[in-house]
Amino acid sequence: MESHSVTLDVRRLVGRFSLRSTSHVGRVSYLLLEMARAVPEWRIWMPRMFEQASNVGYGSLFIVGLTAGFAGAVTSLQAGYQFTGSIPVYFAAGVIVESIILELGPVLTALVLAGRIGARYAAELGTMRVTEQIDALESLGRSSVSHLVLPRVIAGTLMLPVLVVFADLVGIGAGWVAAKGSLEMTNADFTYGAQYFFKTWDLWYSMIKAFAFGLAITIVPCYMGFSTQQGAEGVGRSTTAAVVSASVLILFLDAALAKVLLKT
Q1: What DSSP element (H or E) covers 50?
Q2: Where do the structural domains in the chain lie, given as residue ranges?
Q3: What is the pLDDT of residues 23-45, one digit of tens each?
Q4: This model's pTM is above 0.90
């Protein structure tokens, strides 16, 4: 009897997981369809998009620069620990620059914004949902997607590549300064190493990742906020789920894009 009961419990868990996953896929697909339909209504979402872009871009410069600066400095210090006395010093410069452009700049920026912007979007939309502001907007014949979702998604998707470029510059600059101290590297050595390993495709790859991450940190929190239920407790759950889901999706996209776009 115990074995039969365990089998039923496993089936129930699998069934619940399958139903929830299918439900989420269907709701996200419907949200994406509504966003596509709202694109022609540019007079509605464009002014709101500029406001959201200012909040995402200008409001995130400090935390993005701080994170990128520490990442570049730590990468340089670790490169100094690993490469001292074993390989030419300019190799370390190539490792620092390539690590920041290919991985640290896009990923760390996206994870920081997943916490800052993703939580904000989920909390704002979740609060509007439980206080019936979204229902009131729709009862007036207005599209909640064109007013609330599309401006946030477009603003986040467009601003993340800009922030990634800023993070790359700050990270490389911090790594340069740290390398001169930890490796006693000259400016000529750092410049030579950075140019020796650099490929034009690296910049395109970084921007592709930034664009994909921008979609992840906007669509997922907006969906979570729109699906909020059960009052203030539901807003808290939606905010937490939005940050966790967006962060996991960023890491998954990071691995998938590396496999697809980088020819090893």
Answers
A1: helix 42-57
A2: 39-261
A3: 767 788 888 888 888 888 888 88
A4: no
